[in-house]
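User: For a benchmark we're assembling, each entry needs the component sequences followed by a predicted structure for the full assembly. Here are entry 17's components. Please fill in the structure.
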Amino acid sequence: MTRHVLERELRQLQDEILRLGSEVEENLGVAVEALRRRDMVRARQLIQADEWINQRRIQIGMRGLSLIATQQPFASDMRQIAAMIEIAGELERIHDYVKGIAKINLQIDEVYYLEPLIALYPQMAVKTQEMLRGALDAFVNRDAVLARQIPAADDVVDDLYKSAYRVIVRYAAQTPTAVEMANQIEWAGHNLERSADRVINICEWIIYMVTGVFAELDSEYETPPLTM
Amino acid sequence: MNKNGEIAIEAREMDVYYAHFRAVKGINIKFPTRKITALIGPSGCGKSTVLRSFNRMNDLVLVARVQGEVLYRGNNIYGKDVDPVEIRRRIGMVFQKPNPFAKSIYENVAWGARINGYKGNMDELVESSLRQAALWDEVKDKLSQSGYSLSGGQQQRLCIARTIAVKPEIILMDEPTSALDPVATLRIEELIQELKQNYTIIIVTHNMQQAARASDYTAFFNMDEDRAGYLVEYNATNMLFTNPQNEMTEQYITGRFG
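Assistant: Structure for entry 17:
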C-alpha cells in the first residue's frame, strides 16, 4: 500500500511553507531597512503584502484540515500536518510584526532622524532572519537537533533589544517633545524581539513533528531593567 | 491500564500452532478490565488467532494447539480441569458476519441463557439484553419474528444481545463491522463505547480508523519471516496513532505497508 496522494499533498504544503517562510524572512529585513531609510513606499508595500500572507496562511490551514478529513493521516503524517498548520500561523504572526514596523514607519513624522535610536535594529533583524532560516532548514530536513540549537540565538536578540531599549528611554527622558515617537520606535524593537520568540515556537513544532514529543523551549524574555 | 490496574485477561508466552505451523509466537499481553482494546495488523499476522485463543475457540480446530498460558481470573484457561463451555460463557464472541439462529428474535437472545439453565425471568433478561445492545426500541414489537428479518446492522446487534444475555465479563469481537455499511458501523462503535461500562472488550479490526476511534488501547501485530504472528507494539490508542515507538508500527499505520 502506498500513499501517493497524501505524499504529494504533503510535499506541496511543505513547499508552500518554505515559500511563505522565506518571504516573511525577507520582509523582516525590508521593514527595518525601510524604517532606517524612512522609505514610505516600501512600508506601504509591506502593509499590502500582509493581506496576501494572511490569505496564504489560511489556505495552508484549510489544506491541512482537508488532508486530515480525506486522507486520515496517522503518526508522523499527522504530526507533520499539525506542525505545518501551526508553523504557518507563526509565520503569519511574524509578518504581523513586520506590518507593525511598517506602520510605525508611516506614523512617525518624516522630520525625525531615527538612525541613532534604531542603530541596533538591523542586527536584531539579521539575527532573527538567521534564526528563521535555520528553522526552515530544520523543518525541511526533519532536523530536531538543529531545531533545539536555534533558540540560543534568541538571547542575542534579547540583549540587543535591552541595549536599544536603554538608548531609547534615555533619549525620551532628555527629549520630552519626542516621547510619543520614542515610544513607537521602542515598539518596533519589541516587534523584532517578539518575532524571534515566534521562531522558537516554530522550532518547538518542528521537534514535535520529528520526535512526537512537544517540549517548551526556553524563550523567556525578561523585561529590561529601568536603570539607565 | 485502568484506574485500578485490573487485568481482565492476560496471555503469557503464548504460541499457537496449526499442526506444525506456528501461527503466533511469544505473545505477552494484558487486557485492562472494562476497556476496549483493538488488535490491528496486516492480513495473516495472527490477530484473529490470538483473539480466538482467549475463549478456546481454537479448540474447535482439531489441529490447533496453544502453548503458554492464558490467565483469566488468575487461572490458565487451558488448564486441565477447565470447562471450555464455561469459559465461552464468561468470554463471549461476536463474529465478522452476523450469525443469528434461524429462530425468533426473542429466542436468539434467550437461547444461550436457556441452555445454561437460567432460572430467572426470561422476558426481563431478553429485554435488558436487547436494551444494552441498543436494539430494543427497533424490535420490541416484533420479538417473535425471525432474526433474519432484521438488517445486517440489526442482526449484528442481535448477536451482541445474545452474547450479553449469558452475562459474560469479556466480549471478543472479530471484525464485527466489516460486513456492515458505515452508518451501521458507527452504531456498533457507539454501542461498544456503552458496553465498556460493564464489559472488557477486545476487538480485531482491519480498519485503523475504527481502532483509532473506538478503542482505548491498541495492539499492533505483524508476522516474521516464517509467517508467525507476534506483538510489535502495545500502547494507549492515542499514543500509538500519534507517536508510535516502533518503526514498523509507523510504517503500517501511515499506510506504507500491509
